Amino acid sequence: MPDRIAVLGTGLIGGSIALGLKERTDAVVVGYDRSDEDLALAATLGAVDEATTDLAEAVCDVDIIIIALPVGAIKETINRLTSLPLKAACIVTDVGSTKSEIVAHAQKLKQQDVIFIGGHPMAGSHRSGMKAAHSLLFENAYYVLTPDPDTSLLAVQKLSRLLHLATKAELVIMDPVHHDRVVGAISHLPHIIAAGLVNMVGDYNEQNEWFHRLAAGGFRSLTRIGASHPVMWRDILLSNREELINLLDDWVLQINNMRDAIHEGDGDRIEAFFARSRRLRAQLPDRKKGLLAPVYECWLDIPDVPGEIARVTAILSEQSVNISNIEVLNNREELPGVLKLTYKKEHDFKRAVACLKEAGYAVYADRT
Ligand SMILES: NC(=O)c1ccc[n+]([C@@H]2O[C@H](COP(=O)([O-])OP(=O)(O)OC[C@H]3O[C@@H](n4cnc5c(N)ncnc54)[C@H](O)[C@@H]3O)[C@@H](O)[C@H]2O)c1
Ligand SMILES: O=C(O)C(=O)C[C@]1(C(=O)O)C=C[C@@H](O)C=C1
């Protein structure tokens, strides 16, 4: 019998998991959301077999429940689940960006015959809703599970296998407190910094509009995540308070160190600051392929004149190069060039770079 799975919240994350479940498993997926619009889109895109705005109906007789709501709503939903009849040995998991508080809150589910295993897929977007969902959103990303030490191993294995099939992510097990410290530093703090910078420059811009007009690659690439969902981030920050207070204290030290160096005109200290950062940034492990980093990519500058894209594709087709995607970039956030070409095979990529350079184009083959 295929598993019957309830996905509570058919937004970006729930919608992406549901799409993967339908694409790569034989599960029957029941979607639940308060937004009729997201539910209708999930049904139209084939992410769910059944859709409902009634929680009791959604979780009735299901084998697995995946709670993909904002962190505050995850806790409320856990409360509501405690008074609903759930199938015996049902596995309940969530996708919330914090873990300690949620895992502690979910202890109350132990009164029922259900197994709670906290979860957090480490990929996403500043965009929200089913409209932004994609079945490969998590491909090759880490997907953290935080089972209690006494959680049934069989249940952890069953959930890991299912999520791996549905998301193509790499499942890892972590202690919830450790998770919140690490993710606080590499995700929650950066979102605060990005939003703070956007707000600060927004204040300056009210006096002088050149601040926004001149905002180029540096500002845009650092602040992309400043466009993320306010309710989602309110809930995350309130749920990871202790860690974030420590991290913000460390951040103030970093910034004050630079403030002092600039104030004192200490060039050596400034240079060492950037040298260390450049070295450490280069050491970040490459999370390989996946939706956000297709297999082989190059970017090129082309003049803004009619027929230029056709010229590029003609050169490539003359050389029998297969392109898997071609994209005109509206802004240059983080990337050089205005035309992005993607290839599935390395030899197509190498031949394309060589012949486009030969034709006189400025071609960039790796991200900086
Ligand atoms: N966005 C990311 O990058 C990302 C990555 C990993 C994990 N997460 C976590 O995933 C969860 C969902 O985030 P998302 O990005 O999918 O958000 P989203 O806004 O795209 O989707 C949330 C969905 O929940 C619904 N919803 C909200 N409150 C509800 C309630 N009280 N009852 C019923 N439905 C409700 C909304 O209608 C929406 O469809 C959050 O806990 C977030 O911390 C997000
Ligand atoms: O790529 C983005 O826009 C994200 O913010 C994704 C991101 C992150 O910080 O990396 C955001 C929240 C999650 O809990 C996990 C991933």
UniProtKB/TrEMBL annotation:
Domain (Prephenate/arogenate dehydrogenase) ranges: 3-292
EC number: 1.3.1.12
Pfam families, A to Z: PDH_C (PF20463), PDH_N (PF02153)
Top-level EC class as recorded in UniProt: oxidoreductase
Single GO MF descriptor: prephenate dehydrogenase (NAD+) activity
Alphabetized UniProt keyword annotations: Amino-acid biosynthesis, Aromatic amino acid biosynthesis, NAD, Oxidoreductase, Tyrosine biosynthesis
Pathway: Amino-acid biosynthesis; L-tyrosine biosynthesis; (4-hydroxyphenyl)pyruvate from prephenate (NAD(+) route): step 1/1
GO biological process terms on file: tyrosine biosynthetic process
Catalytic activity: prephenate + NAD(+) = 3-(4-hydroxyphenyl)pyruvate + CO2 + NADH
InterPro entries for the chain: 6-PGluconate_DH-like_C_sf, ACT-like_dom_sf, NAD(P)-bd_dom_sf, PDH_C, PDH_N, Preph/Arog_dehydrog, Prephen_DH
Protein family membership: Belongs to the prephenate/arogenate dehydrogenase family.
Matches recorded under NCBIfam families: PRK06545.1-5 (NF005107)
Protein name: Prephenate dehydrogenase
